[in-house]
Amino acid sequence: MLTTDKLTYWYTSADQALFKDVDLTFEAGYSYAIVGQSGSGKTTMVSLLAGLDKPRAGRILFADHDIAKIGLAAYRRQDVAIVFQAYNLFTYMSALENLLSAMAITNAAHKGDKDYAKEMLRKLGLSDAQMTKNVQKLSGGQQQRVAIARTMVCDAPLVVADEPTGNLDEDNTDAVIALFQQIAHEQNKCVILVTHEPAVAERCDAVIRLANKRFTWEKTI
Ligand SMILES: Nc1ncnc2c1ncn2[C@@H]1O[C@H](COP(=O)(O)OP(=O)(O)O)[C@@H](O)[C@H]1O
Ligand SMILES: [Mg+2]
Question: Cβ(11) to ligand 1 under 6 A?
């Protein structure tokens, strides 16, 4: 589904590349954890995979198409859903409105289907009262579940998350990882998440470590 072809990135100069000539393949139906020390370049890598930034050299292919040719804006709208550490919800809306607007923006198959959005939120443990009040009144764990529910109601086949459990306690971390596994296995999407928590990485189908400017597989599918 997603392939990097000699992917190279640096911020300041080519001789200080964060990584160089990286070839990785990610498949639909599996979850992948990217691990590595702080400052090693994990966020940079997922930003490239999510089409938020352009490679310095090399390409990223989505279903065999160079995302630069698809156009990064079109790629982000149609093909990839992103979950950040800090939820990234519309703060002036309810959980339900957040899902409905994401479905409208991305032209999802279930666009406009309020019952479908409600059903998804119910499955994630939000009551009808909770889903219709402002998202800022929800706990951190609930807000992160809403951010994940938003990727579930949209059709993007690729889900990218940067430290999605970074702010959560153990129970909420468990719930969130279970959801990502469900997205990969039941919705047949490709889930790529960055984490510094070994317990989170362990529960993913595959683990890739970024160290010394190289990505190595610690666990393969
Ligand atoms: N916009 C930027 N300009 C210059 N350097 C940056 C920028 N963003 C990140 N960096 C540097 O690139 C390196 C990798 O950052 P990052 O991808 O955020 O790592 P990680 O997510 O693994 O902690 C770090 O040394 C960081 O300071
Ligand atoms: Mg980071």
Answer: yes
